[in-house]
Structures are given as structure tokens and as C-alpha cells.
Amino acid sequence: MLDKFTQWIEKYLGGPMANIANQRHLRAVRDGIIAALPLIIVGSFFMIVAFPPLPESWGITQFLTANAETILLPYRMSMYIMALYATFGIGASLSKSYDLDQVAGGILAVTAFLLTLVPVSIPEEATEMAGVEGFVLPMANLGGEGMFVGIVTSIIAVEIYRLTDKSNFKITMPEQVPPAVARSFEALTPTLIVILLIGSITYYIGFDWHAFIGNLISPLISAADSLPSVLLLVLLTTFFWFFGIHGLAVIGSIARQLLENNSSALAAGEPLPTIGAEPFYQWFIWIGGAGATIGLAILLAFRAKSQYGSKLGKTILAPAIFNINEPIIFGVPIVLNPILMVPFIGAPIVLATIAWFATKLGLVNAVTVTAPWTLPGPIGAFLATNGDWRAAVLNVVLIIIAILIYYPFFKVYDKNELAKEQGTIEK
Predict the structure, then answer these.
(1) Neighbours of 354 (CB within 10 A)
(2) Model confidence over 22-43: pLDDT tens digits?
(3) Which of 143, 170, 289, 341 has minimal Cβ neighbours within 10 Å of its Cβ?
(4) Looking at the DSSP assignment, which residues form a beta bridge with residue 136?
């Protein structure tokens, strides 16, 4: 049955999706983000160390938790600001496709992205406490939350670079001038335009690029605990993640408030009032991370025939087990990958529906505890439901379902990667 479905997808969707995926700008985004993959993978392991999936009563857990701020410093300078690194990669990759200087294109992309950030002056009281003065940048916008803005501004910057080069609207140096110096002067004109354009939009017109994206999301969120609302939150989360926006922020304080309601009811011996509290998403929907990508990680690790898919799967499987899926989202990548878009959005919707009805019908307890999010799925589900073994079983069943949903699309993806390796299609 799955093989027939896979053949159908490959016959009717594989070609068009592959053509879309090979579009110049989407390919530049893919390659640019992959360039930051080593930082994403290495940085993610510091998150596991800082928040170990171990009992809180253990001495090592208490030690690591107490020193989490220091342990996370390499993470904050790598994966936490991955948008900054990815923009350089996107700019360099897109410039290469236009036969432009890659370094100049990468620098222009980073410049455009940084010009969307507004430095904040450090208050006097904070200066005295921290011993630091001057200005700071909003770090959150340098990470996953700023990825979409980084993609847009990188493309704008390189397109300006291309237009100035194509129209010969640039400073051309004599042949006797060293190539590196000549390229620097050729980049002066697009650099001037990028700084004036993006800087004016941000600082003089007052347009907040990052708030604009956030405002597109927030009005769409409903505070209701019904299945349609849960599915809407899941759809929005995965949809925006597909474009590189950290969609988990969609759930936010609403789901945390629902968890507090459940915890208070449990303490008072009352029936638990809500289903869609925050841990519900973590342990029954975002298994392995947003998109229920644990299913894809397992398939890549054990079923991939392409060298890239197999090696990547074995590398990202451990982070996926601990619910860290930036390596798989940006390593495959899933971002702007039309082949994997359907299961990335569809699998969580199916899992959410099953888990919601299982909780509604009393087959598993509602969540009442925020278990450490880096725990493997079954253990986290067991703890989050106040020790309900049925929740652990449900988590395993949902993982199997995620594997089945991802399988036909994984086959198409893996076949394309294998064809690239064999040289039968363009990389």
C-alpha cells in the first residue's frame, strides 16, 4: 500500500516538487542553511548537557542545572544565532549561482540582515551591574526567530548586487589592480544601495521587520482548547517552521496557562479541565521536535540508500531522540523543501488528532507536569501525565505512525539524493 502511494507521489508530484526545490533562490536558501549545519549540530549538544534527561534529585543534574548559563555559552554563540551564519551562506550561494563573488555576496547578505536590527542602549543601572556599556543587539532575532527576515534580506541584497553588476553600475578598476582590491571596489555600489535602502526602511521609516512577522502570526491564535484550535496551532507552527520561522513560539503563554489550570485542578483533586496544555504538544505532537521529525530521523538513519541521507540520519538521530530537531530541519533541509512539506505539516496534525481523542476519551491522563523537554518521548510522556504508563505507550504508537506518514515522501527524497550522488540529476 505504502509502495503504491510512494509510486503515485513520485509519478505526479515528485517531478514538479523537485523543479520547485531546484529553483535558484530556494536552492540558495537550502545550501546556505546547510552551510551552517556543523554549528547547529555541535551547538545542539550543549543544550542536552545543560538540560540533561536525568532525575532532578541526582547530584550531576543539580550541578549541570546550576551551571546551565555557563554551559550554554557555546550554544548561544553557535546555534542560538544561526540566522546570522545562514544569511552569509545564503548570500554566498545565491551569488555563486549568478557568477558573482561569493564572499562579497555573503557579506552583503549579513549587512542587510543586521540592518533590520535596532541596537538598544544599555540602561545606566544595567551598566553598573554588568560592567558593560554602550549598545546591545536583540539576540533572539539572530536565531531561528529571525531566519525568515534573514532569507528575505539576503535575497534582496544579492539581487541588488546582481543588478549593479549586470547594468555595469559599478566602479571598475584597471586590470593591473589586484583581483581582491578590484572586487572590493566593485562591491562599493551595491553596498551603498543596500545600506541606504535597508537602513532607511528600518531606522528612518521605522519599519520593524521582525515585529511585522510576529504580528502576522499573533492575531491568528485562538485561546480555545478545542480540537480545531489545537489543529490550528499545529498547522501554524509547522507552516511557519517550513519557511524557517521558529513556529513553536505560536503556542506561547496560552498553553502554559492551560497547564497551570490542570496542575491546580490536580492539587485540588478536581477533574483536569484542559487537554491542549503545553506538554501535550511536546510529548504527543512534537515528538523529536516540530513536525514530529523523529519519524524522518529514524528512516534516514536506518533506511536511507543515499550516502548523504544515511550519514545525516546517523548524525541527527541522537539529537532527535532528545527532541532537538534543528539539525534535521536545516540539515535535510526541511525548510523550503516541497517534497517533505506534506508530511512535516500532515504528520503532526494526524498525531494531534489521535492524542486529543485519546485524552478526551480518558485513554490517557491529561498532562499536568512540565517534564524536561530533552527527555526521550516515552519517558517525557510518562512523567508529564503524572506517571501514566499508557501515555508512554501512546507516544511509541505515535512515533510509529509518524514513520509511516514520512515513509513515502522519504523514499522520494532519498531517491533524489541518490540520483544527485550518481550524477544523473543536477545538484
Answers:
(1) 17
(2) 678 888 887 887 788 788 777 7
(3) 170
(4) 120
